[in-house]
Write a sequence for this structure.
């Protein structure tokens, strides 16, 4: 599994390209479609996945879908969040999910796969994507380096995000690498220490 990333849009969202054996998926195509697509050169893009429906994670989805023919995947519980966020910040046609994904679903491409974990709180349909063998988890706006996601936006729920953070930090080994939606990469072990106050 090969991971590439680029910061896109006004909120400098981390867009990730995860590639394996000639195929790739894009996580959080939040803007600057051409800069994201540069990272997919040589790979067939199978899917564009949104960790949640906020505009800064989906703005480039329509353009990337049009160019690559990839399917757009997200959790059904974020449809309202996507509608609302797009109505405020989106331009042109809103991206329509081709398929909904939920906890336990597996997205296969090349010789690898990403598992879906439902982690509500930042939004109702926030998800993480992980691969245990690759010790890799993409956490969207749920878990950051030294911080957890905001819950003061439409659909946010502080109690739920705390439950989700506890689930993530207890489920995975300390050396699992965390790729968040904003800011720099961290590890599960580091965030267990950083967030210990929150979790007691
Ligand atoms: Zn967000
Ligand atoms: Zn964000």
């Amino acid at each position: 599994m090969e991971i590439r990333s680029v910061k896109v849009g006004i909120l400098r969202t981390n867009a990730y390209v995860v590639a394996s054996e000639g195929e790739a998926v894009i996580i959080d195509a939040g803007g600057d479609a051409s800069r994201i697509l540069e990272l997919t050169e040589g790979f067939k893009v199978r899917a564009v996945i949104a960790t949640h429906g906020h505009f800064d994670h989906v703005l480039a989805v329509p353009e990337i879908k049009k160019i690559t023919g990839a399917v757009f995947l997200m959790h059904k519980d974020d449809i309202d969040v996507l509608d609302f966020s797009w109505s405020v910040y989106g331009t042109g046609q809103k991206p329509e999910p081709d398929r909904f994904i939920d906890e336990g679903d597996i997205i296969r491409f090349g010789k690898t796969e990403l598992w879906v974990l439902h982690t509500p709180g930042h939004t109702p349909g926030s998800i993480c994507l992980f691969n245990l063998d690759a010790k890799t988890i993409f956490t969207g706006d749920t878990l950051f380096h030294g911080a957890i996601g905001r819950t003061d936006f439409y659909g946010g729920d502080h109690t739920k995000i705390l439950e989700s953070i506890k689930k993530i930090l207890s489920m995975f080994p300390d050396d699992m690498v965390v790729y968040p939606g904003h800011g720099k990469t961290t590890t599960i072990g580091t965030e267990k220490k950083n967030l210990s106050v929150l979790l007691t």
Observations:
- Residues 52, 54, 122, 141 surround zinc ion (ligand 1) (CB under 6 Å).
- The helical segments are 33-38, 61-68, 79-89, 158-171, 188-194, 196-199.
- The chain has a mean pLDDT of 97.
- The longest strand covers residues 13-20.
